[in-house]
């Protein structure tokens, strides 16, 4: 266990003895643990100390725990316990002996279609429980599905995307989810719904059936572009014996438009069960007999003779009923005639619209309606209308003690504040197009914005930090300095980037440690120097940067000590 792992995994947390690491990711590591009182084996997930120090992360970790507590389903990893000890936040969950779907596919390549249906129905049950609890998984993929020996499924990592999701997604690594299994709307940074999880399930079903995801590419960006605009091969292109009903379900799940997919996981599970029923009916002996190939098949003449008497009486009765119905419809009532008049219907529609408009304007809006109005304005291009959203809807909502969307409201207000600062500094799109040449501070703000939009967050922060240091606090460039500070604060508070930073730094320092063990001193030193250059001005990376500086300083002593040890061993060997 390297130093960084040891910092996040003490020997004991609460009543649990920590064992080996069984999983890791940007959100922390998962360890096998044992309850000291019951000897029960559990899995324990630890929030890294680097994330725990970030503002808001502890609160969000607690939200994830509260969400997991709502989950009660046989196909979801069960939540047991949570706690904090010595500033280490953790929660305990069920430990499942089995293998991930990823491992199964690596071994078997494909899975027989009946087993795929069986597994998918279980996943539907897990997703229904999640969606009923108000949780969108956002990262459904084979590595989050654990299969036991009897093909029972356990869905893991609920709440991960909920913990790190933001309204805007970045291009390089900030996207929440895995590219091969991500819905088009998720790839575009739009609002995700339960249909987004169903798309991911469709991609998982596709890879189980065919042995490959619906879209693949050399880079994540290439895969995302295909998710948004590409067309996949139908599963039957790779699998010969696939029932057409199952193929149609998979293709419907992979529709680009969420509204064209199934409405929820329950409906999908019923359709999957129908596949089994239809297949059994199509291959049963009874169906075969009806096809006319059996000796016991009743001929059409025999069937006609046996029911002719009954049909005669029934047919006469039906003729009378139909005639009466047609006569009734031909005469019609006055109301029916009015409803058949197009101009009458248009006038009635206009009255309803006008009445609804005035009723809506006169009555007081509910908080949900106010947020919806603000959301519609904020979806428009930036402009003075955003101030209306702030003053008329968002600020009153923030003052409401019963507001349940405080994070979203504050996010909108931050965007409006950023627009207001850029407007004062002459940095809005309209003002830049009218003003012609930019000042030097404006040019660097534009450069930082370019880095942000292209996903180069680190370079954007370097430019903004340098510009803040360059501009005096009290000067005619105050608006520009305030804007740079606002942009940098927004960047540093981005939870996606925090997770990325932690993963990159941890992996980089671990790589340097490994290189040092292999006595590749120059390569290890290059990694430490890169950490210092890239993160030297980042307060959140202070601990990693300090370790990198310390290791560089001690490197000559380490090299000398290793050299002395090697010479001693060589001399000892020669003497022998």
TrEMBL record:
InterPro entries found in the cross-reference section: Kinase-like_dom_sf, Prot_kinase_dom, Protein_kinase_ATP_BS, Ser/Thr_kinase_AS, TPR-like_helical_dom_sf
GO MF terms held by the record: ATP binding; protein serine/threonine kinase activity
EC main group: transferase
Positions annotated to bind ATP: 45
UniProt biased composition (Polar residues): 566-576
Keywords (A to Z) from UniProt: ATP-binding, Kinase, Nucleotide-binding, Serine/threonine-protein kinase, Transferase
SMART domains per UniProt: S_TKc (SM00220)
Location of the Protein kinase domain: 16-276
The protein's Enzyme Commission number: 2.7.11.1
PANTHER family membership: MITOGEN-ACTIVATED PROTEIN KINASE KINASE KINASE 20-RELATED (PTHR43289), SERINE_THREONINE-PROTEIN KINASE NEKL-3 (PTHR43289:SF6)
Stated name of the protein: non-specific serine/threonine protein kinase
Naturally occurring in which organism (per UniProt): Gimesia panareensis
Gene for this chain: prkC_1
